[in-house]
Design goal:
This protein is of the alpha/beta class. Helix 7 links the parallel strand 6 and strand 7.
């Protein structure tokens, strides 16, 4: 699947992933009214509204981008009905030939990680039948329980030719409370290094066990809000694709991203969520209005693409 992701990035010339992170405050009133008229102001009504919202945005942008990233918590808040909307969204995006990155941030003790990996990337046997759960193409994985929480995902990646993005340096303001902590990674030398560098080295090692043509099935999450750390981690993980959150609404911009990419212009894919899906609520796209919210999202994708293109061109 990493090969397909690279091919689609080359084809679209857009290293962009749209985060499908719906909130009811983003869903235009006309969509909510239709959903509530059919299902009431219930969890099912909310799930229908976010599904219709997602579908309209995907229809407007799928030809411009290689991938989408639905964040499962935004669906889980609506219970079982929300998870049904998550699965419907995944299936629809795959019908549109989009790569689906399940932003699920799983990672637990070995047996539990095996179940998470099967549910999101692999398969289970029910009686004599092989069944698939959410069936995303990639999943985000939390490594902070250690390698026994990551290796079940790697095993499924090898079997299914799918991929993971391991949390290394996240975009949120408090990430440094743990990820930037200095620790001695070599007891003999006593050299002190930030924890995110050590995690990055593990990602590079794990990735050697499942390589695509040019990049590994094991990628990393590194926030756009930390460009200097991105430069360091790009060197540590030369064959890992980097998923870069934090663009747009969290403050990241094209100029911050250049060090996340390799010299070939590949190696990174940048996520924007509410900056795209709620673009119609921003001043620069207000002319579209709530009725044309999906057109505003398309315009935001095109603007993001231009911003990244200019930043990479300036790098030379």
């Amino acid at each position: 699947m990493i090969n397909k992701l690279v091919e689609k990035i080359k084809k679209t010339q857009a290293p962009i992933v749209v985060g499908l992170d719906p909130s009811m405050k983003f869903v235009p009133e006309q969509i909510q009214k239709r959903a509530f008229a059919e299902y009431g102001e219930t969890m099912k009504g909310a799930a229908e509204a976010i599904w219709q919202y997602n579908k309209a945005i995907v229809d407007a942008v799928y030809d411009l981008i290689p991938a989408v990233k639905p964040q499962i918590a935004m669906y889980e808040q609506f219970g079982v009905e929300g998870l049904a909307a998550f699965q419907k969204t995944v299936e629809y995006c795959r019908q549109k030939d989009l790569i689906v990155i399940g932003d699920v941030k799983r990672g637990d003790i070995g047996s539990t990680s095996e179940a998470y990996a099967a549910g999101h990337l692999g398969k289970v046997t029910v009686g004599n039948t092989v069944c698939r759960g959410f069936d995303e193409d990639f999943a985000t994985v939390n490594p902070y329980l250690g390698s026994d929480g990551v290796k079940p995902f790697i095993k499924v990646c090898q079997e299914e030719k799918k991929g993971i993005f391991v949390l290394v340096k996240t975009s949120n303001p408090s990430s440094g409370e743990f990820q930037d902590r200095l620790t001695a990674d070599d007891k003999e030398s006593g050299k002190m290094r930030p924890l995110y560098e050590i995690v990055g080295e593990h990602v590079a090692e794990w990735g050697e066990t499942c390589m695509g043509d040019s990049y590994s099935y094991v990628g990393a999450v590194v926030g756009a809000t930390y460009p200097e750390q991105g430069r360091i981690l790009r060197d540590i993980m030369p064959k890992a694709y980097i998923l870069v959150p934090g663009y747009g609404a969290q403050g990241g911009k094209g100029a911050d991203l250049v060090h996340f990419f390799n010299k070939d212009g590949l190696g990174a894919i940048v996520n924007s969520s509410r900056g795209i899906i709620a673009a119609y609520q921003q001043e620069q796209y207000a002319k579209y209005g709530a009725e044309n919210f999906a057109d505003a999202s398309r315009a935001a994708v095109l603007a993001m693409k231009e911003d990244i293109d200019q930043a990479l061109a300036a790098r030379g």
